[in-house]
Amino acid sequence: MIAFATFFAFVCFALAILMNLWKIISAAEIADRILALDAMFINALALMILYGISLGSEIYFEASLIIAMLGFVSTVAYARFILRGNIIE
Amino acid sequence: MNHFLIAPVVLPALVGPFIIMVVRHHLDLMRIFSLASTVLLVAISLVLAAQASSGEIQVYELGNWSAPFGIVLVLDRLSAMMVLLTSVLALVVNLYVIGSGWDKRGANFHALFQFQLMGIIGAFLTGDAFNLFVFFEVLLIASYGLMIHSGGTRRFQAGMQYVVYNLLGSTLFLFALGTLYAVTGTLNMADLAVRVAEIPAEDSALLRVGAVMLLLVFAIKAAVIPLHFWLPASYANAPLPIAALFAIMTKVGAYAILRMYTLVFGPDLALTEGLAGAWLMPAALITLMIGAIGVLGSYRMGRLVAFGAITSMGTLLTAIALFTPEGVTAALYYTVHSTLAAAFLFLVADLVTERQGIEITAQRVMPQSGLIAVLFFAGAIALTGMPPLSGFLGKLLVLDAARDHDLVWWIWGTVLIGSLVTILGMARAGSLLFWKSHSITETEVDPTVAQDHQPHQLHEDHDSSAHGKVAPTARATVLPFVACFALLAGLVALTVFAGPASHYAEATAAQLFAPETYIRAVLGEVTP
Amino acid sequence: MNPLSIEFLVASAVGLLTAAGIYLILRRRTFPVILGLSLLTYGVNIFLFATGRLMVNAPPILNKYADVAYTDPLPQALVLTAIVISFGMTAVVVMIALAAYLSARDDLIDMPHHPEDEGEDA
Amino acid sequence: MKLLQRLVPHPILTLLLTIAWVLLTSTWTLNSLVFGFLLGIGIPFLTQPYWPNQMRMKKPLKIAAYILLVLYDIIVANVVVARIVVFKPNSKRRPAWIAVPLDLRTPEAITVLAGTITMTPGTVSADVSAEGHALLVHCLDASDPDAVRDSIKQRYERRLMEIFE
Amino acid sequence: MSLFLIAALPFLGAVFPALLIRAGRNASASAAGLTTFLAFAGLLLHAPAIFRGEVIQVGVDWLPALGLNANFFLDGLGFLFASMILGIGLLIILYARFYLSREDPMGQFYTYLLLFQGAMVGITLSDNILLLLVFWELTSLSSFLLIGYWKHLPEGRQGARMALAVTGSGGLAMIGGMMILGNITGSYDLSVILQNKELIQASPLYLPALVLILVGCFTKSAQFPFHFWLPHAMAAPTPVSAYLHSATMVKAGIFLMARLWPVLAGTPEWFYIVATTGLVTMLLGAVIALFKDDLKALLAFSTVSHLGLITMLLGFGTKIAAVTAVFHIINHATFKAALFMSAGIVDHETHTRDINRLGGLRHLMPVTATIAIVAALSMAGIPPFNGFLSKEMMLEETVHTHWGSSAYLVPGLALLAALFSAAYSFRFIGHVFLGQPRNDYPAKPHDPGFGMWAGPALLMILVVLIGLFSATLVGPLVAIAAGAVIGGAELPYYSLKLWHGLTPALYMSGVAVAGGLLLLLLHRPLMAAWNAALRPEAKQIFDRLMRGLTKLSQLITDGLHNGAITRYAFVMMLFIIALSYYAYSSGTIQAPTRLAQTEGPIALIAWFCLIVATLAVVAKHRQRQLSLVLIGVVGLVVSLGFNYLSAPDLALTQLSVEVVTMILLLLALNFMPKDSPIESPLWVRLRDGGIAVIAGLGAATLIYMLMLRDFSMPSISEFHLANSYKGGGGTNVVNVILVDFRGYDTFGEIIVLGIAALVIYALTEAVLGTRVRAYLLNRKPDMPQAGDAHPMMMVVATRVMMPLALMVAAYIFFRGHNLPGGGFIAGLITAIALLMQYMASGFSWASERQRMFYHGTIGSGVLIAAATGLGSWFGGVPFLTSAFGYIHWPPLDEFEWATAALFDLGVFLAVVGAVLLALESLARFAWQPGISSEHAMDINPARDDLEQAQLQAQAPGKHPGLQAPGPHDPSTKGEV
Amino acid sequence: MDMIFEYLIAGFLIMSGVFGFVGSFGLLKLNDPMSRLHAPTKATTLGVGGVLLASMVHGLTVEGSVSLHELMITLFLFLTAPVTALFIAKVHLHRHETKDSLPPPADDSNWATHTVIEPHPEQD
Ligand code: NA
Ligand code: NA
Fold it and tell me: I need a surface site. Which of D13, E557, E672, E701 has the fewest CB within 10 A?
């Protein structure tokens, strides 16, 4: 059952990532692209933990942790770039 | 354990950070430490050279991990010679830079200088293929910094190209190393040699690809045509004393070719047959010719010498591409010569450009014209390989070594015609710079002519000193001349003591063509 | 050739990253060139990584309790070194590109030079 | 006391960090706790210049209650939003902007409020006013924006006032 | 005196004139004279032995590897030439002392002259052909300096370069010839080579060697068609001309032909090449000389002609011809040196060398006239002067020489040449010295002082005496020299005397003299015809050739190196691909040994994302920010892939590097154009796409093949896996490799980072030191800016996030040795944490609060790493040997320590410092007055309300909301 | 007991999958930019939260170790998600809204994003 649920979640997040990708490429507005990238980071994070669950391994935890932090930083950076140009003024 | 082996790498690696941290704001102290480090480096190199000259190969197992599992440094005659050459050159260039005040024209010069030395020396000493990559990167990134030292539009643009081109080279290096590792399962050069020798001939294709990519990487460094395009613009736009130091950098490429293609992919190895021999010789000859043509076709000092350096690389690689002990002997002798000669002429070029800008044109007589003319003449003699300086001997050695080669007529023809073209170019430049100026008197200098040349001499930057034009306070200090004469003395010594020098080169070549000794020294008696 | 094999996926990714990187490096402005260098770096890093052959769920973290398979750690260490070095290189190249742009007010990477029509010594 | 305050400028942060360390290492040993505590003291000390003012929070129980409330709201929010996203046609949705005037004054409190708004049903804090006296909130689907505004003030701001001010 | 010393003396002496010039012109000249005299005297000391037929040899190894030895030998031929060089050299030094004016740098002159003299002596004494080559090329170089001595004269510069070009190329050809010669005989020692006539002439390489050597000789000796440089070398001061063109430079080629005569001569090839060239040159030179109005040009072409004569004689290949050649060498040296010096005196006194402006000088400068007339008569072949003797012998030889089947060709042309030779000699006498004095000389001529005419006078006396008493005076010399030329074989019968009876040669002489007189009478119409005739002007051809060559070189060079790195890179790719393909296709490959592993849809989806994102980067690369976003996707997927494929460390590193890189790029992009225009035409894009696709296919194929095959031998990493814990104390093998097994790589790697930061810093300084600084200060943002630069929520969130992130960094750092992580990743996370703070509150605000000395951070990182490495020296083990152990402090549990952690700390610091320094540089670019805010956040009602209250207390009645810009307005804090 | 945990884990996973999917689906479906902002920042929070919960329970039961470090990720997400949303909203405000298209900010002068002060860099 867990295996099925994991697989289901895998598929969901994978599809989510594909949709994010689609949005990043096709969006007319830069804000949407940033948003999609942020979502992609989050989905990737989820995928990573799922992967850890499916393998019964804790090794992949740090990567998720880092993604959580870095996704934020890059989203803010992209947004700040549009808002201010200089992102560390 | 002989810690002397690691000393020439660690010393600059310590002095560099020390300079930045402690004496960053004291020019004199920076100079003192930088110079002291360089002097010490020469001393260490002398000790190493003395140790290596016995013929024994010394191995230093870093981290106390034996080869091939850890990284080893290997000192043989070749590496000792290259380290000594590097440190001597560094000392001279350092003197020049300090004397001419180039080090003041930008930040962090001395730290970068030390790191540059560390990278070059590390590359010469390492016995590990991937570590060679790492030290290539160290020397490259330091060279990026030195190349754009003191800035300026054109220098930045050229710097950009230099970096991009070399990054492509570094990428190729990784592809090559990956391929070699994937096939052989090792990175240690001696171990590679052992394993490559055991690979069955019918499984050669992938290894050959790795081997040829590696060769191409080194060919980029050595500025072999058509991979030489990075050189003219970078050397010509670098501060010329830096270009003088860079004279050793192309030799790193030549060194690596020599090392890998005698130790690992030796000339007798069936597996990699035809990879180096087939194209390197023609390419070297064309390089030589293109360099010579460039000398004749240059109208700026830096470019002139840069193409001179390309010519000498062509000659050097011609000798290497013979892949015979005689050829390597000639190549080694010529390596020392061409390094000193190119550096010498770059320094003289700087003396000239500091006084009257980068264009090779007749302007009014420059200060110290006579002395500089003498130096230029000597440098031109050296670089073109005319007697009485060592270039002539080196060239004769190359020609002599080529006599049994299939392409002997091409080699002789190219070397000789190349010399002629170079001579013509140098004569043209010298007579314009030092003779024609005497027909121009103060009143005769045509302001419109000066105007015409303006855009090329003076770029939009403010610091005219960085880009030549007549620096108003181009006053002579002794040190630059001392440096020039030191190099000249080196060339003379190399000429007078050609016998002992060639003897060392011969012994080095013999060592290279007997790789068993090297392998045994690194891996011990047991073969995996 | 099994198009669904992990080897095929990785190899084709290497190929595409390399190709895309090279294409961008051949553009005429510094910025795309830097982008291209980034892509190329990905490509070569994966290449180098893959030379240790591919293994799923076998990280080279020693397991004291079980006798498990480990993937080849050496290429990973090499790639790590390569990543760090290329990071330093990228930082430098970005800054040089910026400096060149600010000085020349132009980010063309080609450096056409104009040979003067120069008379012979007379 | 002064010295202690200088050394441990943000005691709550120190606690949080110590817990974070133990969570991170997932090893429930004395070593881990001691080490975590040392870091928990060291890091706030190093980062103190960036957080010069002392943050005061009263009534820890209220904090816990607030957290539980918000968690509950988040779960609800997700279901609501999911339904709107999946089932409600775009044409029937009533997106709206609302301005929420603030009684809160401290940045920490306003930030927590804004964060809460974003995490809970169909609302996102989009901006703050130039003098910091109002929040701009976007609603995914609000037929009555004023009701949303009042519920924000009632449900969250009031509680935060008690905690922070 | 040792031959070494004789050869070295001029070189040693060359130092003095330049140095002594401060002591005066006489001192300078004396030093030069004294050196030459010493060398000459030393040479003469050997005369008795030489005349006894001995050969003096000395030698020392120089470059044994090559067979280049510093071997000298002195035989008759060498003695003859060396004496001429030194003897005439002495006279020239004396003459030049008076000839040169005060403006001329005399020290330089004598230095060059002695250098040249030394090179010439070296040629004559060399017993090793490589050594000879050294001196040979030295003559080219030193003559270049001498000819160009008058720097201000364009003719001087051009003449010098022309001489260098011609003789230099000849010299290079000769190198080839000599190398072949050495290869044939197996030695470069002349004494060996001269013993191997049969070997050499039988070799298939004989002809190439001969041709190459002859090219060298002919260029040096100005033989047709290389004769054109010599007259242009006349731009040199006359002493130089006299020296170079009588005794020395041009005779070097003759010398070498004579030197190698024993082994090269005697074949048909030799005869047809050498004799014919000599004959043509002799005739051509004589004809042209007649039509030269410039005194020195006339003499120069006469020299060409006489050198042709000697060459022709050597080319005949008979012993008697060789003897004649030697004799004429002596004679020509005497009369030609005298003539040049006389011409120099005329020039010096009258300030012109134009024959048309001269005449009648016999009356005004009788001494000079006597010398010149005697010498010129000798040149014309008039008895009893010495020129007559050798010319007579020459004509006699031509009579016996058949060219092909023709018996008349050689004597006929020789006669014609003799005729013209007589004619120009007579013109020299008649038009310069005879006739009535004129009153329109540019300067009033009179005989110069004794010092100036002493030399030529001495030579004139020799001309006369040798003519009268040839057998006695020069007989022995000719004998020993000719003996050497013919290789020690027995000398043929000959006699040096004025009267040989009524031989054909005598008739020919008579015809020549008569004809010469006739030509002189007809000179005016002939001159007109000559001037009207079309003929190739060698100088123009040469100039055009040189200019063309230079232009062509510029064209090739600039065309190839046109500054387009796009093309450079393209060529590079092409070459790499081609060679790699060649390497592959010329090898063989076995079947795969591994199976491909099938994977599920997840990997496929990730792969799909990567492919799409990569393609999108390419497609959208012109929108720069978008392409950065897309690159972010690529990086993310790559990291996921690493994680998936069992490389968690790589994933972590890739992710963090990714973000920092992206931020650096964003920071840079702020200043740069936001879009790239379309510039390449379609075909270029297709071309680039093509090469890119091929390269990509290559890389993909290569790695695919590699992955499906096993290592040919077990990988060394098996050792790493086995020893990581035992020997390295860590369970994360990747980390143990990084900090222990291959810690040296990592040491290099952090140095790279440190250097990167230094470069960035230096570059920033350099840029901000120029006018770019002003531009940056006045720069207007190219996109509209939003307000609220430092949003409150971000600042507050960061206050919590940053300590947490630092905690994560600490966690990653400490566990790295055993689990994924390590100093590098921790460093990047720390940097990113600080970056968060910069983004929240601005760089200036944040860095003001925590003055970090980034240089110091990097430096200390490198130093700590290095010190950790050096620490192992104290344990007597190599650099970077690690140590680890366990400590137990109750009540705590046991914990592990490892020097590797210290090393990792170095890595950590270097990374942090490098990233922050780069950021700082970019922040410095962006700095504008007022950019720095005094507050962490722009809007803070708590703070602003307080200030507002205080303000209202001071100035009541203002509504806070309407007041703008007030103290709480973001504008006063954030920007301006 | 094990069954319960298994159901629990499976439930969490399914929930996370659904919300993860919906979040990104909303990004495509919703037709105005500000609304799109709602979907992912919320749904992914619970999506990821579900996975994290599943992971924690999984660790506790299947692996037998008490690993709560997933909480750290949750903490990070809760701290960052509002800020991320704020910035993206500000981008939208900056590019597509004006003072007039928004409700007035109580008694304040303007919304912060629109309070733009033209920089007046001075001559050096
Ligand atoms: Na010019
Ligand atoms: Na000049």
Answer: E701
**pLDDT of B440:** 64
State how far the Cα of B169 lies from the Cα of E958, in Å rounded to an integer: 68
Q: What is the mean pLDDT of chain E?
A: 89
Q: Which of D67, D85, D87 to mutate to test the interface with F (most CBs of F within 10 A)?
A: D85
Place of tokens 């430098």: C92
The SS3 of residue E471 is helix
Residue whose tokens read 């996973």: F13
Residue B470 has pLDDT above 70, yes or no: no
Packing angle of the helix pair F33-58, D60-87 (nearest 10 deg):
120
Contact E798 D105 (CB under 8 A): no
- The sign of the dihedral angle between the CA atoms of E806, E808, E811, E814 is negative
Helix pair E523-532, E504-521: axis angle to 10 deg:
80
Q: What is the pLDDT of residue E138?
A: 92
CB-proximal residues (5 Å) to ion ligand 2: B 433, 437
Question: What's the pLDDT at E548?
Answer: 93
- In degrees to the nearest 10, what's the CA dihedral of E543, E545, E551, E557? -130
pLDDT at B527 over 60: no
Q: What pLDDT shows up at residue B222? A: 96
| CA dist., res. E464 & res. E370, Å (int) | 12
**CATH number for the domain that contains residue C110:** 1.10.287
Length of chain C: 122
Identity of the residue in F18, F21, F91 whose CB atom sits nearest the CB atom of A82: F91
| pLDDT tens per residue across span D122-155 | 899 999 999 899 999 999 998 899 999 999 999 9
ipTM score assigned to the predicted complex: 0.93
Domain of residue C79, residue span:
6-56+70-117
For residue B103, give the chain E residue with the closest CA. Answer: E762
Residue listed under structure tokens 């100036």? E452
Q: Which residues of A touch E669 (CB under 8 A)?
A: 81
Taking residue E679's Cβ as centre, other Cβ atoms within 10 Å add up to: 13
Classify burial at E876, counting beta carbons within 10 Å of its beta carbon; exposed 0-12, middle 13-18, buried 19 or more.
Answer: exposed
Which residue of C17, C95, C103 to mutate against E (max E Cβ within 10 Å)? C95
pTM here is: 0.93
Residue B454 confidence (pLDDT) above 80: no
Contact D31, E815 (CB under 8 A): no
The 10s digit of each residue's pLDDT in A36-69 is 999 999 999 998 888 888 888 778 888 888 998 9
Tokens describing residue A26:
């096709």
* Residue E832 pLDDT: 93
> CA dist A9 to A57, C4, E607, F26, Å?
17, 22, 18, 17
User: Could you tell me which residues are beta bridge partners of residue A32?
Assistant: none
Question: Which amino acid does the sequence have at E666?
Answer: L
Radius of gyration of chain F (CA): 21
pLDDT, mean of residues C39-62: 94
Structure tokens at E441: 């000389």
> Do B58 and B5 touch, CB atoms closer than 8 A?
yes
Q: How many domains are there within chain C?
A: 1
How would DSSP label each residue in E374-438?
Answer: HHHHHHHT-TTSHHHHHHHHHHHHHHT--BTTBSSHHHHHHHHHHHHHHHHHHHHHHHHTSS---
- Length, in residues, of chain D: 165
Q: With helix as H, strand as E and coil as C, how does chain D read?
A: CHHHHHHCCCHHHHHHHHHHHHHHHCCCCHHHHHHHHHHHHHHHHHHHHHCCCCCCCCCHHHHHHHHHHHHHHHHHHHHHHHHHHHHCCHHHCCCEEEEEECCCCCHHHHHHHHHHHHHCCCEEEEEEECCCCEEEEEECCCCCHHHHHHHHHHHHHHHHHHHHC
Confidence of residue B458 (pLDDT cuts 50, 70, 90): very low
Question: Nearest-CA distance from A32 to chain C in Å?
Answer: 22
